[in-house]
Amino acid sequence: MKRSWIPRVVTLALICSGGVRAADPDPAGPAREDRMLAAHIAFLADDLLEGRGTGAPGHEIAARYVAAQFQQLGLTPGGPSNAWFQTVPLLESRVVPGSARLELRKGGVVETLEVNLDFLPAPRFTDTHALVTAPLVFAGFGVQAPELGYDDFAGLDLRGKIAVVLGKAPPRFPATALAHHAHARQKSKALADRGAVGVLSIPTPKDLEDFPWPRQVIQSQFPSMRWLQPDGLPADVFPQLKGSARISPAGAGKVFAGARHSLAEVLAAADRSEPPRFELDREATLAVRSELRPLTSPNVIGRLPGSDPALAGQSVVLTAHLDHQGRGPEIAGDPIYNGAYDNAIGVAMMLEVARTLGTRQPPPRRTVVFAAVTAEEKGLLGSEYLAGHWPEGDGRPVANINLDMVLVTAPTRRFTILGVEHSSLRGPVEAAAAQLGLELVPDPRPDRVTFVRSDQYSFIRQGVPALFPKVADPGPAGGSTVVGGISPDAFLRDHYHRPSDDVSLPRDDASAARFVAFMTDLVRQVADADQPPRWNPGDFFGVTFGGAEAAATK
Question: What is the pLDDT of residues 413-443, one digit of tens each?
């Protein structure tokens, strides 16, 4: 994208002040709504903001923009101390170029693997210099799920070993359990608890279909982050694991060379959810140096107070992540990862929901909290901090609806509402969809474990029922192109986490407006219901995170 921010900012200022009404005699009508949505996206995804990288100046500009919009819309500050911002303390870590080393050793023969070609080292957060040498043991997916009769650790001694594990979780798992057990945090904790001192993770062929190795190499060049606890230690870090790395298909072949089971045999068995577990009869040395930098980045929080004194102490939370990846490796000469769909559009839609709810009377019975969260691209850090450090005065969260990457890249009335099967939120979802003549489509790819990959999962981990609406492919067979735009799958393949995710991509205004209306009606129904949402009896997430009340319904 070329730098065209000056005329856009001027235009945006005119729009926000009502200064371009001559072309639209009905400032409250659909044309104005489309224009506002387009203006928000154009500003947030402009090169001026340099991709809204967490902790970077562009993200700060975006945060101030959202706070100004919240104020203009008549919301009240929802952050700590009656402020618009909740400061999230973070620690950034980068691998020092040229410092990573991975060696395989067997019978006195040493094989050195190549960075990028064979492996990608993970940066450290508790030390700047890491070195671990230990025997390798293959531990399947690295998953223990007693509720499903599955245990990758049975009969294995991981103490003092480097665990080699496959990505995701056994494909026979139900979608919900698959999503939970595939999470990297869950696996790291399980391995650390069993005494492992390192981990090498190997993507499955299906993982590589969705996230090819060359794209993983590019993504590895962005820094990693964790949020900092009050004691100054990073959260969700396991110091017992002295080193970790992702292994490419080429590297995996070297790890399994001469092993009791070949890599092909292991992958075939894993596809049947029956991976063998065994010592690899060799040891590895993994070394890496990391650069650490503390920083802060804000969540932006606005509140629409509830009108019913009996329910105003409960809140429906609408989230959308404000950050994207910032500046990164050039692709086709462009170093700015603008993030128009990921996730300027989600923030823009959240602002439009706030505008509509704020102008309709009477106000919602429950409080509605709008949060533009930071550091989603770094591991859901902003939403995790928000959900675990909920500001006083915002009401106890009873539901979360998360807007992320709403791919209205072509005309559509088909939506997949991830999470609808877990709680009583299904009722208002179906009612709101029926009002607008929308088609609700089941998740066609539960193996992608999308439901744990955005900010709603932070609220689920706090026991709050949540939804993650997505645009479904335009027809039963999907396809790479559609009339009037591109399909969501085509976006994921060609533009996701790339500089080409900018405002030049097609966007269907009518579909975007329908989605905003859908979300507005959904939030309103949840906020006005006599009873708060409840986990379904015996639901996996409800039992796992919902506490004694959810478990008692099982």
Answer: 999 999 999 999 999 999 999 999 999 999 9
CA distance 418 to 402: 10
- Residue 357 contacts by C-beta under 8 Å, 6 or more apart in sequence? 304, 363, 364, 368, 520, 523, 524
Residue-wise pLDDT for 354-400, tens only, equals: 999 999 989 999 999 999 999 999 999 999 999 999 999 999 999 99
Closest CA to 447 of 168, 188, 204: 168
Kindly report the CATH number that applies to the domain delimited by 93-292.
3.50.30.30
Query: What is the structure's pLDDT at 548?
Result: 41
Both structure tokens of 164:
């080699």
What 3-state class would DSSP assign to 138?
Answer: strand
Q: What is the average per-residue pLDDT within 478-500? A: 81
**d(Cα 520, Cα 516) in Å, to the nearest integer?**
6
Which pLDDT score is estimated for 456? Answer: 97
- Write b or e for each residue in 525-540: b if 16 or more Cβ atoms lie within 10 A of its Cβ, otherwise e: bbbbbeebbbbbeebb
Which regions of 96-196 does DSSP assign to beta strands (E)? 101-106, 109-113, 119-121, 129-138, 144-145, 150-151, 162-166
> What is the rounded CA–CA span in Å between residue 408 and residue 537?
34
- Determine phi and psi for 349, rounding to 5 degrees: -65, -40
Mind giving me the DSSP string for 345-370?
HHHHHHHHHHHHHHHSSSPPSSEEEE
Q: What is the pTM of this model?
A: 0.92
Q: Measure the CA–CA gap between 502 and 461, rounded to whole angstroms.
A: 32
CATH tag, 5-74+305-552: 3.40.630.10
Length of the chain in terms of residues written: 554
Q: Crossing angle, helix 509-528 and helix 30-44, to 10 degrees?
A: 100
Rounded CA-CA distance 320/296 in Å is 19
Q: Is 485 left (phi over 0), alpha (psi -120 to 50) or beta?
A: left
The answer, yes or no, to whether the previous bond of 249 is cis (omega within 30 of 0) is: no
DSSP string, 293-340: EEEEEEEEEEEE--S-TTTTTEEEEEEEE--B-EEEEEETTEEEE--I
Integer CA distances (angstroms), 462 to 110, 188, 459, 542, in order? 47, 20, 5, 10
Residue 474: what residue type?
P
Residue 240 structure tokens:
């017992």
- Cα(521)–Cα(516) distance, rounded to whole angstroms? 9
Q: What are the domain boundaries of the chain?
A: 5-74+305-552, 93-292
- Residue 130: which of 59, 193, 199 has the closest Cα? 199
Task: Summarize pLDDT for 8-34 with one digit per residue, the tens.
Answer: 443 444 444 343 333 333 444 556 668
Q: For residue 22, what pLDDT is reported?
A: 30
